[in-house]
Design goal:
Layout: H1 2-18, H2 29-35, H3 41-50, H4 56-68, H5 78-82, E1 86-87, E2 93-94, H6 103-121, H7 139-150, H8 159-174, H9 177-180, H10 190-197, H11 205-208, H12 216-226, H13 229-246, H14 249-265, H15 272-298, H16 301-313, H17 317-326, H18 336-347, H19 353-363, H20 368-376, H21 384-395, H22 403-409, H23 420-431, H24 442-446, H25 455-463, H26 473-476, E3 498-502, E4 509-513, H27 517-528
Antiparallel strand pairs: 1-2, 3-4
């Protein structure tokens, strides 16, 4: 009997590779399963799938064996042998076992495969071992199912079967998401599959955004990219809820206990203050590296409302800055409240400079006709830097035709605190303007203000020559003896008027405070004109 069985197997192999007919040898499920682990088993299994002489249930079983058999050369062979073109053992190119079948036969075999594929896909990923993800035996079934669904021309032609297989893949994607998205053994990545199958693969992701989740950023990106409108809102709500949870005393206390226990296990001695510092670092990192980046990607009203609140009253300057950074691209021109909230942050004298700068950056994303009237109200604040930032933004939104109006808003006298940087930067920005239509050239607009009685306008006109051309120095000679005093600043104002001048007897330079307009021209502006 053993010799007869061996001869049947041998004959089957010859038949499989040469296309000869085989008679008198019965092939059963035991043979199919045994071939999963033999050297020439794959070719024999392909032969069973492709030839009409075998029962449909046996051909289905051979196909399933090709899917579950161990990798060959480090790669699973199921997709290659069932779907893709490949070379057989004799080097001849062949169609995949399923793709080469007549449509009706293929449909029957896939219909028989579907229940087993679905049953495998419904299994959760194995539990982690020592915190590490274990091998997921469902991956080959996921890969082949997805490969059949996306193949062109379609392999799964029966609508009911297709719907069931897609539903199983959706469930697979949302079960054990954090382990499966990192599983590198997949021939088709989880994200690729979710993008292909569309919005329904993301519906459960918002419920996975919890404090124990480690892939909040990936979840948020997928929700933003493929989620439907309802899923996006739920994802935004989940992110906000998580952020608020991490701000609570309960969360802080829980992390304090965790850190203290960890330190004890590691034989690390840490004072209560040091433990509190560790927890604070963890909390800050959560916001900086996870929550705010995720919010920036996802957007939606629950998130923007939370970010505006954080920008205005966040517990730390960094938190406020991160919130404004996450609001990039989100100010809504049709929502007047967005303009008002950003403007309130920008005009508040108590706002830290870094926070204010980002508030202005977000204001710049709104239409200029909305922000210009607001910006001009900031030209007489207690802090000169507020005017400087607001004025710089104005100059980036107007044309040369509007420069005279701008000049008229600047400080009229040197008694108003202002920085040397103001005139130099304003003049530079105006000089770089590109006239449109019939608008005047920047130089033509600026020259009349060289003799303006308005201090701010004069400083801007003179500042337009800074780092300019040597040939223009004669235009400034008449101002070298101007004795008009420059503004007086306290140290905390950070607006000292000073230039780097040659140090006596050396090639080095040293900072020298200046006190008049003439000194500004002679010691600061003219030496910079070397083009």
């Amino acid at each position: 009997m053993k010799s007869v069985a061996r001869s049947c197997v041998s004959a089957l192999f010859v038949w499989a590779t040469l296309g000869a007919s085989l008679s008198g040898c019965a092939v059963g499920e035991n043979d199919v399963h045994k071939w999963e682990g033999t050297v020439h088993g794959p070719e024999k299994l392909v032969a069973v799938v492709t030839h009409d002489k075998y029962r449909l249930d046996l051909r289905k079983e051979a196909a399933m064996s090709l899917i579950r058999m161990p990798p060959r050369g480090g790669t699973r062979q199921g997709i290659k042998l069932l779907i893709d073109k490949h070379k057989d053992e004799s080097g001849e190119e062949r169609e995949g076992a399923l793709t080469g079948l007549a449509e009706e036969t293929r449909m029957k075999i896939i219909d028989l495969m579907a229940p087993e594929l679905i049953a495998e896909l419904q299994k959760p990923p194995p539990a982690r071992t020592d915190g590490r993800a274990a091998a997921d035996p469902t991956v080959p079934y996921k890969d082949i199912t997805f490969a059949m669904l996306v193949h062109e021309p379609p392999l799964v032609t029966k609508a009911e079967t297709r719907e069931k297989l897609e539903a199983a893949l959706v469930q697979w994607a949302q079960t054990g998401f954090e382990d499966r998205i990192e599983n590198s053994s997949q021939q088709f990545g989880l994200e690729q599959m979710m993008r292909t199958l569309g919005p329904r693969t993301a519906t459960k992701l918002p419920s996975l955004i919890t404090e124990s989740a480690s892939r909040v950023d990936r979840m948020s990106s997928l929700i933003a990219e493929i989620g439907d409108a309802d899923t996006k809102v739920k994802g935004a709500e989940a992110l906000v809820a998580l952020a608020k949870r991490i701000e609570t005393n309960d969360w802080v206390e829980g992390q304090r206990k965790f850190v203290a226990d960890y330190n004890k296990r590691q034989n690390v001695t840490a004072s209560p203050e040091q433990v509190a510092g560790q927890v604070k670092t963890m909390q800050d990192r959560k916001f900086k590296e996870e929550l705010f980046p995720a919010m920036k990607k996802l957007g939606q009203k629950p998130i923007t409302e939370y970010l505006y609140a954080q920008a205005a009253t966040g517990t730390t300057e960094e938190r406020r800055t991160l919130a404004l950074a996450a609001l990039e691209g989100k100010p809504d021109k049709n929502n007047p409240q967005d303009l008002e909230r950003l403007f309130a942050i920008a005009k508040d004298d108590a706002t830290p400079d870094g926070v204010r700068d980002l508030a202005f950056a977000r204001l710049a994303e709104l239409p200029k006709e909305q922000i210009l009237p607001k910006l001009y109200t900031l030209f007489e604040p207690k802090k000169w830097k507020v005017r400087w930032v607001a004025a710089s933004l104005v100059l980036k939104t107007i044309t040369t035709k509007q420069v005279p109006e701008f000049m008229g808003r600047l400080p009229k006298t040197s008694k108003v605190k202002s920085g040397m940087t103001e005139g130099l930067s304003y003049g530079g920005l105006i000089s770089k303007m590109e006239p449109t239509g019939g608008d005047p050239k920047p130089r033509d607009v600026l020259m009349p203000f060289l003799t303006s009685p308005s201090f701010g306008a004069r400083m801007t006109a003179l500042g337009s020559f800074y780092e300019g051309k040597k040939a223009d120095i004669p235009l400034l000679k008449r101002f070298e003896e101007d004795k008009e005093a420059l503004p007086k600043c306290d140290k905390e104002d950070d607006c000292a008027w000073a230039c780097a001048v040659p140090k006596a007897g050396t090639a080095e330079k040293e900072m020298k405070e200046i006190s008049t307009v003439g000194e500004l021209v002679k010691l600061c502006i003219e030496p910079s004109m070397d083009k």
